[in-house]
């Protein structure tokens, strides 16, 4: 889809309308679930309910991602917690398997993607879209995307996306598959692809595929 034509602008208008309406309704209908999860996080591990992290949004805009906290307090001090092997994996993929920083409740939240529910507010505000590339930190974009960084940031990042819907933990930076899949969405975003991502994400959540 040509990104300067009327068709693309209409697509963006409809997409933003969908983001606004769906996120607004979700926040109202599932307000009770947010309360239950907040209490559960607080009771299970004495610390903040939410985790806030700086990311890069569309066209380089600084945004903040908010999640229900799934890691132990002070989990950002990775050098004090992770082994050398785990540090190496984290620096390569910006995530690790069997992360020792994750709490027991946090593991459940991640497996079910419930930890990401606070991002619905970010969608309502307009920082995120329901569908788009994963929101990343500045260093990750520069290191993993290089000359394609500007292209990646030409669309709004999303809560779910083409890479995330296709077994995200199995498509790595090292293999180059993750970058290809995120950039594929940027080049081919459309109503049809968005619907396909929604369907695949629903299936993946029920099968608990990819989330670690």
Radius of gyration: 17 Å
Sheet with the most strands? Answer: 2 strands, antiparallel
Poorly predicted parts? none
Instruction: Write the H/E string, N to C.
Output: HHEEHHHHEHHEHH
* Molecular shape: globular
Query: Could you report the average pLDDT, rounded to the nearest whole number?
Result: 88
Q: Which percent range fits the helix content?
A: 40-55%
Biggest sheet: strands side by side, in what order?
Answer: 1-2
Enumerate how many helices there are, as a single number: 10
**Structural classification:** mainly alpha
Q: Termini, distance in Å?
A: 33 Å
Number of strands: 4
Question: Beta-sheet strand percentage?
Answer: 5-15%
Structure overview:
- There is one protein chain.
- The protein is built from ten helices and four strands.
- It is mostly helical.
- A hairpin with a 5-residue loop joins strand 1 (50-56) and strand 2.
- Helix 1 (6-29) crosses helix 6.
Write the topology of this structure.
Layout: H1 6-29, H2 31-44, E1 50-56, E2 62-68, H3 78-81, H4 84-93, H5 104-112, H6 119-125, E3 129-131, H7 138-145, H8 149-152, E4 158-160, H9 177-188, H10 191-207
Parallel strand pairs: 3-4
Antiparallel strand pairs: 1-2
Which characteristics define this entry?
212 residues; mainly alpha; two-stranded antiparallel ribbon; two-stranded parallel sheet; 4 strands; globular
């Amino acid at each position: 889809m040509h990104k300067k034509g009327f068709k693309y602008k209409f697509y963006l208008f409809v997409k933003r309308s969908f983001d606004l309406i769906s996120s607004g309704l979700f926040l109202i209908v599932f307000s009770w679930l947010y309360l239950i999860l907040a209490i559960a996080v607080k009771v299970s591990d004495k610390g903040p309910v939410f985790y806030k992290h700086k990311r890069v949004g569309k066209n380089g805009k600084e945004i903040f991602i908010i999640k229900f906290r799934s890691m132990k307090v002070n989990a950002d001090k990775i050098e004090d917690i992770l082994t050398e092997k785990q540090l190496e994996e984290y620096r390569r993929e910006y995530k690790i398997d069997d992360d020792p920083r994750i709490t027991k409740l946090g593991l459940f939240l991640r497996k079910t993607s419930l930890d990401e529910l606070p991002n619905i507010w970010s969608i309502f505000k307009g920082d995120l879209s329901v569908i788009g590339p994963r929101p990343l930190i500045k260093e990750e974009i520069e290191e993993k995307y290089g000359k394609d960084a500007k292209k990646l940031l030409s669309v709004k990042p999303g809560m779910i996306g083409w890479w995330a819907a296709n077994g995200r933990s199995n498509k790595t930076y090292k293999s180059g598959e993750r970058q290809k899949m995120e950039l594929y969405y940027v080049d081919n975003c459309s109503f049809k692809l968005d619907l396909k991502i929604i369907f695949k994400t629903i299936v993946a959540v029920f099968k608990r595929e990819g989330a670690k």
